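Table 4 source record.
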Amino acid sequence: MAAYEALYRKWRPQTFDDIVAQPHITRTLKNQIIRGKTAHAYLFTGSRGTGKTTSARIFAKAVNCLNPQNGNPCLACEICRDADAGALTDLIEIDGASNNGVDEVRNLRENAVFLPVRCKYKVYIIDEVHMMSAGAFNALLKMIEEPPEYVKFLFATTEIHKVPATILSRCQRFDFRRILPADIAGRIQYIAEHESFTVTDAAAYRIASLADGGMRDALSLLDQCAAVTDTIGTETVEEAVGVAGTESVHEILRAVAGRDSAAALQRIDLLYRQSKDMTRFADEISQQLRNLMLMKTAPDDPALLSCMPDELEQLKGIAEQMQLPEILAALDAVRACCDRMTRAGNRRMELEMTLIRLCGEESDQRSRIKALEQRVASLEEELKAALRNGIPAAGGRTLPQKPVSSKPVPAQNLQVEGKPDTAQYLPVKNWATVLEKFDEINPSVSGLLQGSGAFVIEEKNTLLLIVRNRLFKNLFTQADAVMLGSAAAQVLGKKYAIRYKCIEPEGEQVSPAEVLLERAKAQGIEVGTRDDKPQN
């Protein structure tokens, strides 16, 4: 009886056309082979299970194939058959993790000078090349830079940052992308059609999600599930792999949204008694929190989400119960929990503590902060209304309004620091029109100028305001002065610098705005004092 062959080996791609989700690489390599313009050294990089070593083997066959088919190996000639059987001496595969010393590289360099026995090229495939020592890399440099014309090097690595720049600069680099769950699920269904089992669409997508972009991991999980039953559903996948179902994840998220720590702990206890992997479950929670985050920030782009269509409605319901800051805080806490789990002895306890924090006091504190922010925003709107028109005080009692005087201000009262001013002051007769223009630009501040007057000082190209509102000094900023100057220029036909003088009559009554300011200060809210004021 023939030995069983694992699915990831049985269904390993044999041509470039069989490789899934890497067209940017396979198309380039095929064109190079067709045109006879292949390089002497290649570097394939990317996460595990994305096709790096497989592509290297296909390339090695294709450049030596006796009857290449549009850049692909024919798979029928003796070179292709011996390469697949591992009997081709001119194709040398080296594990960089176990052959990483200077001596191994020296042996490679000494053997490389000999002509190939049967093939056109002698091809060296070095897997996990980042594991080689610094001395081994240095021994490779000269050979990679100027190899014999019949030698080609193919390097594969998952950690490109560990490969020296001197090696990178001598190779053509190809970056293999993570395979999308939809592509993995399609490949799983294709394999299932040719094997003796069936896989539901939901189960195929579940396997693809667990594989995290790696085809080899996905086929290994599929192989494991096929050993359980011939009809593979999501329950089969979760049972075989030992992960909690998506319903458990949603239950935890609903508990967090509802501040129900007891429900969260009960679900954790159930999963623990079923021997579910707590680290993997925490990672699944973080993945669904990511979906919630994307729902809040990009609701019109469901393609960003990583979930099945039947999960979408449940996630939408959970998202409606949580605000974006809460989701971000929960995601940060769960990711930190995943990091601690790698070092903790009791992983269940780490996850329980995290969920209690999310459901408990810290979440209540966030709610109190949110309520305070809402009260502050309400108070600010009330203050703006008071500055424009004046409003009734709290409780409905109308506060007395400060009397507004429309009498002109005598020029002899306009003095600065007690020194007489001999400049000529010309009253602005259409000042009310200026204030109307200013109210259109900045209505929240125009109320401060009720009952005010203005004089033009032509000698100083200045517009001097005479203001009777004691809050003006605290609330009128340089930016407000710029806007007032713009409004005045539209009416007066000339741009003036803005200065002001406040006149506060004795015994004047308290305005509603001043009452609001005192209420704001009593709640610990700073309102009004600004450093960017115009000169007075």
